[in-house]
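The passage that follows is intended for readers who have already worked through the single-chain material. We present the inputs for a multi-component assembly, then the predicted structure in tokenized form, and finally a short commentary. You are encouraged to pause after the input and sketch how you expect the pieces to fit together before reading on.
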Amino acid sequence: MKLPIYLDYQATTPVDPRVLEAMLPYFTSQFGNAASRSHAFGWEAESAIEKAREQIGALIGASAKEIVFTSGSTEGINLALKGVAEMYAEKGKHIITSQAEHKAVLDTCKHLEKRGYEVTYLQPDKTGRVSVDAVAAALRPDTILVALMWANNEVGTLNPVREIGELCHAKGVLFFTDGTQAVGKVPVDVEADHVDLLCVSAHKLYGPKGVGALYVRRKNPRVRLVAQMDGGGHERGMRSGTLNVPGIVGLGKACELARAELVEESKRTTALRDRLERKITAALDFVHLNGNREHRLPNCLNLSFAFVEGESLIMGINKLAVSSGSACTSASLEPSHVLRSMAVGDDLAHSSIRFGVGRFTTDEEVDFAAEQVIAAVKRLRELSPLYEMAQEGIDIKTVNWQASNH
Amino acid sequence: MAYSNKVLDHYNNPRNVGSLDKGAQNVGTGVVGAPECGDVMKLQIQVEGDRIVDAKFKTFGCGSAIASSSLATEWLKGKTIDEAMQIKNTQIVEELALPPVKIHCSVLAEDAIKSAIADYKKKQGAGQP
Ligand SMILES: Cc1ncc(COP(=O)(O)O)c(C=O)c1O
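Having made your guess, compare it with the prediction:
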């Protein structure tokens, strides 16, 4: 077993060796520019690109023509939101999203607000889920776009995408979903799920970093976008720039593998995820699951260890690579905006750890991780005045804390 | 985030962890911070004459907060109350090489010292006939 153990598959994933192998020729011998129409190098690159489009389309139920290559989901989100907002401004200027979205969505929405758009930020429920009723209640005659993620990157909660998509289609409002964490992990079918725009990022599904795709529906309805990057008119004018051929080949291969292995892999990661939770909760009390037990990514486990602060816990489990929703791991000193939006309580937000398992995680690693977590939490609780209070029967919520304003 | 060796040392081998009898007349207890802010420090001193003979802490917080309070208990032991009042958060920052985002941990430790001393003094005042 190699240390440290990687349990941060929501942050990024290693490139699958099969993906790397598919990519390699496109760096050296088949290095052509896919836009070169006059020679074999260009044709070769173009055919590789078209194959990747098919592979991505097949995974999400789209046609190859509906795939626009990007540098990743941040770009896909920017293109979808700004592109739709600009294109449909005459129809209306209202957008609906949620407080639990990725910063790429939230900050793009803030940008649009400065440009005169109005954004409704729905509050998810305590499990991080936005209900279709909440969306329905927020719809207005001038709503042009609903932007809600498929799967949350911090807690793994899945939104009721199909219901929301159906609602949007019935009301004639476009529906964008951030599929970064979901594609390749849970079944995605843009037709059955009524999705109009969806972003994918290769590095979350065992492909390389810096490449992704945006699905843009071509019929019922035909979605139009204003390009956010001007230039040679690549990607049907929606995204100029010479295509990253090796990266795109990698994304295509990653999607092909994900499609072939999704069912089996999801079973396997679910078992690993649940094994980790079972071992931890068998040994520790006051452990709280953040997220939705029923509607959750198969490979994500977010737990709060009451009375223990997340960053100190991460120090104590330094043989594991995990993330925390605690303030201290970010520059802002604010706990995770996702946990805040779910109103789990800032104290629990500070105590949260996200464990992400994946294609290369083993039972042995999970067992080791559980042992490390249990030992560190026990040690830190011995150090914790809050644990001491809890054991004396004091409810820490009733204490009048004299917080300093530093 | 990279931690200094001193922070790591205090985190891995915290000094003076535990609790003193908070009901005792010669024990001062300070509890500062709040769970929602991600730091709570409990710091206690036991005083004989005007000298601190023992100090204990428990901290909920990041590694730097644990190290700051651990270091504070080390410094408190053997000091007089007046000397203890002179301990400044900047000395803690320097000793532990805390980065700017962790300065609040040292401030909290200084607050905890002041709060424990205030509690002790209050008890002494209340003890006067
Ligand atoms: C839900 C979600 N959206 C968007 C992104 C941004 O993706 P990318 O790294 O491809 O820009 C991430 C990854 O951090 C994510 O988890």
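Commentary: Chain A has two domains: 5-9+261-394, 17-258. The longest strand of chain A covers residues 300-305. How closely did your sketch match?
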